[in-house]
Amino acid sequence: xxxxxxxxxxxxxxxxxxxxxxxxxxxxxxxxxxxxxxxxxxxxxxxxxxxxxxxxxxxxxxxxxxxxxxxxxxxxxxxxxxxxxxxxxxxxxxxxxxxxxxxxxxxxxxxxxxxxxxxxxxxxxxxxxxxxxxxxxxxxxxxxxxxxxxxxxxxxxxxxxxxxxxxxxxxxxxxxxxxxxxxxxxxxxxxxxxxxxxxxxxxxxxxxxxxxxxxxxxxxxxxxxxxxxxxxxxxxxxxxxxxxxxxxxxxxxxxxxxxxxxxxxxxxxxxxxxxxxxxxxxxxxxxxxxxxxxxxxxxxxxxxxxxxxxxxxxxxxxxxxxxxxxxxxxxxxxxxxxxxxxx
Length: 343
What we know:
Layout: H1 5-34, H2 39-83, H3 95-150, H4 157-188, E1 196-199, H5 200-217, E2 221-225, E3 231-234, H6 236-252, E4 259-266, E5 270-277, H7 309-319, E6 323-329, E7 333-341
Parallel strand pairs: 2-4
Antiparallel strand pairs: 1-3, 4-5, 5-7, 6-7
C-alpha cells in the first residue's frame, strides 16, 4: 500500500515534538530538583520552558510554511513545463532553479520524442497505404482476368489447370499482403482497437463461420461449449480474427476426421477460451517460438503458411489486455487458451 507523503511528515512532526517536550521537561525537572525546589528557580524554569515551547512551535511552523511553499513552487514548475509557460525562477543559481531547468529539459525531450514518433507513424501509414495500393490493385486485376479466362469456352484441360494455379497463388498472395498490412498497422499503432463489454459467443461463432467450410471439407467437427451470458471486454471484429487464425491452424494441422472443441469459462478477472484440437501437436521448446513473426516449425514444412497468423493473434489479444497460453502433446493435439479481460 502506498503511503501519503503528508502523513509521513505529520508523524515526523509529532515525533520531534514529543522528543522536544520530553527533553525540556526532563531538563526543567532536573534543574528544579538540583536547586531543592526553590520557588524562584521554579518560576525561572517555567518561564524557560514556555519560551522554549514558543520557539519550538515557531520553528516548526516556519519549516512547515517553507515546505508548503517549496511544494507549491515545484507543482507550479511542473505545470508550467507541461503547458509550455515561461520559467518561474528564471535562471537564478538556486536549487529550485536547477530543478526547474531539469524538468523543462525533460518535458522538451519527451515532447520531441513524441513528435518524432507521430511523424514516423505518419510516414509508415503513408508507406503502407502506398505499397498496399500499388500491389493490391494489379493483383486484383490478375485475379479478375484469371476468372474471365476460366469462362472462355474451348480451353483445354492443361490451360484450365494453369489458370487454376494462377488464381490460387494470386489468392494466397492477396492474403499474405493483407496480413502484412494488418501486422504493420498493429505494430505502428495505426489500428486502434475498441474493446467493449460484449458476449463472447457471437465473436466465437463469427470466427468459426469463416473456417467452417474448410473444416467440413476435411470432415473435422467443431463443437462450441459457451454460455450465452459469458462476456468479456474485447473488440469483436479483431478478436474474431485472432480466434480465426488459431482455428485455421487447428484445421490445417489436424488430420481428416478430427475434432475441435471450443470451451469457454469465466473467472474473476478473465474470460478463458480454450481451443482444443486433435492435430499433430507442438514440441514444448516451440511453445513460445510459434508466436514469433514468420516462425514456422520444420515439422510443418509441407503445409502452406508463412508464420503470421499466431503472431497477429497474440498482438490483437495483448493490445486488449489479455494473453494467450498454449499446451500440447505430440501426436495428440494442442490447447490454445485465450484470456480476455472482464473489465
